[in-house]
Structures are given as structure tokens and as C-alpha cells.
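note to self: dont lose this again. the chain is below, predicted strucutre after it. 111 aa total, dont forget to put it in the shared folder this time
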Amino acid sequence: IHFVIEKKDADSVVVSIVGAAIFSNFMKLKTALANLENGKTVIFQMNNTYLLDHTVMEFLHDFQHNYEGHGGKCVFLGMETHDTYSRHPLAARRMKPNHMSRRKSDHYGLS
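---
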């Protein structure tokens, strides 16, 4: 997983997540999000996230609930470019092949 947290303006930050976000590699992201100032708008950019497992989905759901409970707001962009593995709202998701570059699609066996 690769992620970048950038201050967009005085009231919002953008969290861009690139690659696969799975239980074994998202601890740094979890720590970074825990250090965000309360009361901001956190925009999660998922257009370059090709895989989100259910553990990460559950964490993001819990983060949103807690952060918004402390006066903040969370927005998730790019989730429409993903398919879910089941109907559960926190099911793992993978990027739809037509939204991924051909090279990545072939590399990850998603074509």
C-alpha cells in the first residue's frame, strides 16, 4: 500500500490510497489517520486502489463513525470503480478491470 495525506485547505485533507489495502499492510495508514486533527473533512481518494479487503473496509467504516462523532466528516471518492465480492456493505472490493491500466490488470490477474 502507498498512501499520501495532503492538506487541501484549512478545513480538509485528502487521503490518496494507491495499490492493495489489505490487513497485512495498512497499519501505517491506520496510525497516520489516528494522528489527524479532529473536525476536518477527510476525503479518501480510492481511484488508484485496486484492492480493499474486508478488514480495511471495516476499519474505514469505524474510522468514519468515530471521526464524524468528533465533529469531522469523511468522503469516499472512487468507490464506484470497484466491484464487491459479496452484498455485504463492508465486503472486500477490487477495481473493475475497465478502470485499471492494462498492465496492472494483467499483472494482478484481473483482466
